Amino acid sequence: MAYQDFQMDNQWLPFTPNRHFRKDPRVFVAASGMHFTTHDDRQVLDGISSLWCVGAGHNRRPINEAIKAQLDTLDYATAFSVSNDKAFRAAEMIAHMAPGDLNKVLFCNSGSEAADTALKVALAYHRARGEGHRNLFIGRERGYHGVGFGGMSVGGIPANRKVFGTALLPRVDHMRFIHDPVNHAFIHNAEPEWKEDILAELENRILPLHDPSNVAAVIVEPISGSAGWYLPPKGYLQRLRQICDKHGILLIFDEVITGFGRMGTPFAADYYGVVPDMLNFAKCVTNGVIPLGGVICRDFLYDALMNGPEHVTEFFHGYTYSGHPVACAAAIATLDLFAQENLFERAGQMGQVLGDAMHAAFKGLPNVVGIRSLGLAGAVELASIPGSPGKRAYDIFLDCYHHGVLVRNAGENLVLCPPYIVEKSHIDQLVGTLADAIRRHA
Ligand SMILES: Cc1ncc(COP(=O)(O)O)c(C=O)c1O
């Protein structure tokens, strides 16, 4: 099928340079396992799990069959004041997988909705306890929590914020970023050990400025994913947990990327041994096949809101498609498939292979200023072209696509995060193609 067969006048593409896309369209028409088929009948290796979603690989029969069966059984039912069997089962499986007493699942449809949901739970919780003055949120520079006004406000990627400044939530502050490009530019399956206490700023400046008693929640990605796979210093998340506990501040982990196996464990919370008060998920929970997201809350949050007359809704929040039966059927099949094929363990093992390959192939190449790998993901960071931030990485992304691999450009980074079913030969192709492209764009 030639690309001229697509009429491209009507779709406005998300997070895409639209005008350039029209000159060089990249359109998928089929996918299986690790590969896409393009509109011009080429195979492209999916090096990014279709934006961190497709952990089990594309077009997996058990998930497809579960969806088809659900469509023929219960296609849809409203979620308000009634529910469906698959939503209960999916919530049970997710809660069972989550650490500690993260037991109550509020479903939504995306990571952005999960961010807004978690922030609203935090406000409602504090108000229910008579601490409605706790209404300030703390995010982190270069954090990404989606594109809703809440998530955007606590997020810290400048390009996502700059146009919308006046509409951002007013009661938000941000902790400093977690990267040290001088001492920890190259990280290979390790946690960077900082001499400096990076959270001293939170304790000694940000919290005293606002007074900790006014702070509702801190929200972080355990690993800064969308910014370009930046890893927290050793002990950072543990210390953040301690600071939040000391001041009665809720801790939210946004695990939309790290959740469901990317680190070789169910969640990054397990990898780092830190249990947040809320954990946001989306993407891999359905293998990306159908939109589903959610917030897993610790029991005490739910309990605090279960008050007032029994006929009155306790938490005025939810979506028409919260716990959609087809999405939940997909989640159940996905989580079963992850378990049957030991895919989380496999992600951990292949992460080692990916990290080894990236460091061997990229170190010393022109313009490479950093390489970071942990779990089944890694990023190579390049020197910016003066006056054209992001251009080198974008050009390399295009080059890789035209040489048969899909990588992700994020700022000056190229990110690799293949499906958990990835084989060594795929990793060799991904890394080899990316290394060649880096050389071509020196
Ligand atoms: C950590 C994190 N939170 C939230 C989101 C937003 O998710 P969505 O695009 O499903 O709204 C993303 C998307 O990549 C993400 O990485």
Description:
- The mean pLDDT is about 95.
- The chain has helices spanning about 20-25, 50, 60-70, 85-95, 110-130, 150-155, 160, 200-210, 235-245, 270, 300-305, 325-340, 345-360, 390-400, 425-440; strands at about 30, 35-40, 45, 100-110, 135-140, 170-175, 185-190, 215-220, 250-255, 280, 295-300, 370-375, 380, 405, 410, 415.
- The chain is α/β, with parallel strands linked by helices.
- Helix 3 (about 60-70) packs antiparallel against helix 12, helix 4 (about 85-95) packs parallel to helix 12 (about 325-340) and helix 5 (about 110-130) packs across helix 11 (about 300-305).
- It has 15 helices and 16 strands.
- Helix content is about 35%, strand content about 15%.
- The protein folds into 2 domains: about 5-55 and about 340-440, Aspartate Aminotransferase, domain 1 (Alpha-Beta Complex); about 65-340, Aspartate Aminotransferase, domain 2, CATH 3.40.640.10.
- The strands form 3 sheets. It has a 7-stranded mixed beta sheet with strand order 4-11-10-9-8-5-6, sandwiched between helices. A 5-stranded mixed beta sheet has the order 7-12-13-16-15, with helices on one face. A 4-stranded mixed beta sheet has the order 1-2-3-14.
- Pyridoxal-5'-phosphate (PLP) binds near residues 146 and 282.
